[in-house]
Amino acid sequence: MSGLLLNDKTAVIYGGGGAIGGAVARVFAREGARVFIAGRTQEKLDAVAGDIADAGGKAETAQVDVFDQEAVDRHADEVATTAGGIDIALNAVSVMHDQGTTLADLSLEEFMRPVDGFLRSLFITSKAVARHMGGDRPGVILTLSEPGSKLAVGGILGHSVSAAGKEAFTRVLAAELAPRDIRVVGIRPHAVVDAPAAGSYTEELFQPLAAGAGQSVRDLLEGGAMAEGTLLKRLPTLSQVAETAAFLASDRAASLTATTVNLSAGTLTD
Fold first, then answer.
1. Rg, Å, the chain Cα set
2. What is the arithmetic mean of pLDDT over 175-192?
């Protein structure tokens, strides 16, 4: 069992019933981690936990509202008490937001929705788990952003600012937590090609763009304009995102912190 990337690690995944969170949870469990998945919808959490149990892994679920700081703190305390600490945490919580509306027609509320939603949940969850990491139990906090953090494209003001904020949060938090041997690493996937089939809000998010191109969302993602805009002419898959997360959370990436790993298939080349 020692060959497993995350053997005997304890991982908390917020948004663990979603497309990316669920995929990461399954891979973490396969690699030997004891996984605690938290989210709003018990049915989705149970489905992921059932998959993990069927494969011989360990997963526990909890309904937690990531915008409720006290509830998140209590859950993190309970996980740490049960498992003796927390080794890995990922915030895979998504916030539905506008893409495609330019400044003249964009309301302040729609602009702020992803900025406040993504960054508020990232702050709350990171603060909760960091208290249970470090010292004799090195920790890893993984974050998720998007290529919009660096793209100069109209119609994605709130999306772009929130993505850039998450990457800045990653860098600065890594500097703060490094003395306690806690790494903070970001993952920047493009739109994930098979996320709609896994129940994400990708279908709803990209429907206006697909309609404008005269395509279905599936065609847009699998071989349309979004895929063609990458160097590799394809978008990342859930499996690729999850496998990358497992490596970054493992001791094999022990010198990697304060950076964001680019999974944009060449949309961005940094």
1. 18
2. 96
